[in-house]
Design goal:
Length: 262
């Protein structure tokens, strides 16, 4: 500010001198000595290291991967109650934001047959239990025809029912592959804790979750394996309500299940 300091008696002259210095490039003072920037290396200076803890320097992979967070939470559940709590507190699935309730399961956890459905509908979302709407009522009648019930205290005739998705998708749309993958660790842990003799996959979503394939109309009635358990794919009761002619095939599947349990 040499020129400005010399012209202290004229404010306008001082301002003009300051503007001249700015135009000449003297617009900031950052060092005690001038720097010839033409002599600086072309490479940009590297940022100075910061004092950070080892945990901050190495980011936790779980924080970047919601599926890994789900798997860790699921594996940490040593009981069905703990698993229910882990799912209810899981905050990485957007479906939870629009759901009224977390729909966990219904029936006897000691049952030989575990029914794995797709996702809650409107009635299930309101009540917090799987398969309680029209499709659920049909499912109850179907399995009652071969002597199985979700209310039975007898493990030989009991059912245990849960879904791949514990929260209702908007407008009852199909869950996306990403949503299924996100909740699959909980499904796998759920089945491991119940340890059923047989899994019945009802609809495309559980078929895809357990086998990675779709096409329930082709797969239904054909026994397979999933998570080390016998797997029977069946059409969803909602499909049977829309397509009554398919009930004959569903009855054949039920008889196949009955024969397997003997």
């Amino acid at each position: 500010m040499g020129i400005a300091a010399e012209i202290t008696g004229d404010w306008h002259a001082a301002l003009a001198a300051l503007a001249w210095e700015v135009e000449a490039g003297a617009d900031e003072t950052i060092l005690d000595a001038p720097v010839n920037r033409y002599e600086l290396a072309a490479e940009s200076p590297k940022p100075l290291p910061t004092k950070a803890s080892p945990a901050a320097a190495a980011p936790d992979p779980l924080q970047a991967d919601p599926v890994a967070i789900a798997r860790s939470a699921a594996e940490g559940a040593s009981s069905l109650d703990a698993l229910r709590e882990a799912i209810a507190s899981f905050a990485h699935c957007d479906l939870k934001k629009g759901a009224r309730n977390t729909v966990f399961a219904d029936g006897n956890p000691k049952a030989r047959v575990l029914i794995l459905g797709e996702a809650p509908g409107a009635e299930e979302d309101r009540e917090g239990r799987p398969f309680v709407g029209r499709a659920g009522q049909l499912l109850d009648r179907m399995f009652a025809a071969i002597g199985l019930s979700r209310t039975s205290p007898d493990t030989e005739s009991a059912l245990y029912i849960t879904n791949v998705m514990p929260w209702r998708p908007p407008a009852n749309r199909d869950p996306s592959p990403a949503e299924i993958a996100l909740m699959l660790p909980f499904v796998e842990r759920h089945i491991a804790l119940v340890d059923p003799a047989v899994i019945v996959a009802v609809g495309n979503t559980p078929l895809f979750a357990l086998t990675g394939t779709k096409g329930i109309l082709r797969a239904r009635g054909t026994w397979g394996q999933a998570l080390g358990k016998p797997l029977l794919p069946m059409t969803h009761p909602a499909y049977l309500l829309r397509t009554p002619a398919a009930k004959r095939e569903a009855w054949a599947d039920l008889l196949s299940l009955q024969a397997r349990l003997r």
